[in-house]
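Re: beginner question about structure tokens

> Can someone show what the tokenized structure looks like for a real chain? I only ever see the sequence side.

Sure, here's an example I had lying around. Input first:
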Amino acid sequence: MKPQSKTHRIWLTTEAERLALMLKALGNPVRFQIVQTLAERQTCITQEIVDSMPLAQSTISQHLKVLREAGLVRGEIEGPATCYCLDPQGVRWLKEQVEAWLPGCCGEPGPDPAFQVVPSKTAERHR
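And the corresponding structure tokens:
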């Protein structure tokens, strides 16, 4: 006789689901790098993002789709290309939610010298 598995669904509020979706999107190293590149450059067409990574255009497009659906980036079609930028409302909302989710857990706010994001090669080429 096979033991029955218990499956439990965790019910989250709409805001908690949105936060989890954003964090999941950022949990992928490629998407994390895309967001970092957009933060550094402000705007990029798809090909500029593709040129900064060793991945196919179709793969980058899939990652951009996930980031758009999570509310972290926006894309505007400009002729044959799509121009991407961070979604300021989405990023602001994410920052506020993380702060509200973990209030006062880490003492005084300020940069943590142990955690530094290394500039991407894209940013270095455009300086």
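Each token stands for a local structural state, so reading them left to right follows the chain. Strands lie at 43-45, 73-78, 81-86.
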